[in-house]
Specification:
Low-confidence stretches: none
Strand content: 25-35%
Number of strands: 4
Strand order of the largest sheet: 1-2-3-4
Structural class: alpha+beta
Bound molecules: zinc ion
Shape: globular
Mean pLDDT: 95
Number of helices: 4
Oligomer: single chain
Length: 103
């Protein structure tokens, strides 16, 4: 699960906001092409503050905007947990994918 997906997702049960905790991640930036443009689009959609808050909650630090952008588009949560801030429902992240459907 990557940052843009976290920003987009909401709880499938109640549409509430989700809180993601990360146990294991990998940095997998596939391409630096159009990275600045993609970032501008994301900031226009969600605001820089929301993006930075999400990184802070995950304890992912960055030194400058370049690092921030590389984390936003390159870092993948492989194992973790998602909890709804509204109804408290929990969903696991396994093998990089959020599991919103009960197995
Ligand atoms: Zn919920």
């Amino acid at each position: 699960m990557r940052i843009p997906q976290m920003l987009l997702c909401c709880c499938p049960a109640c549409k509430g906001e989700l809180n993601v905790t990360c146990a294991e991640y990998k940095d997998e930036l596939l391409s630096k092409e159009f990275l600045a443009e993609k970032y501008q689009n994301l900031v226009q959609k969600f605001s820089l503050e929301e993006i930075q808050n999400l990184l802070n909650k995950l304890n992912w630090t960055f030194q400058n905007e370049t690092e921030l952008i590389e984390i936003v588009f390159g870092r993948v949560v492989y194992t973790g947990n998602i909890q709804c801030t509204k109804c408290n429902e929990e969903y696991p992240i396994k093998n990089r994918l959020p599991r919103f459907v009960k197995e």
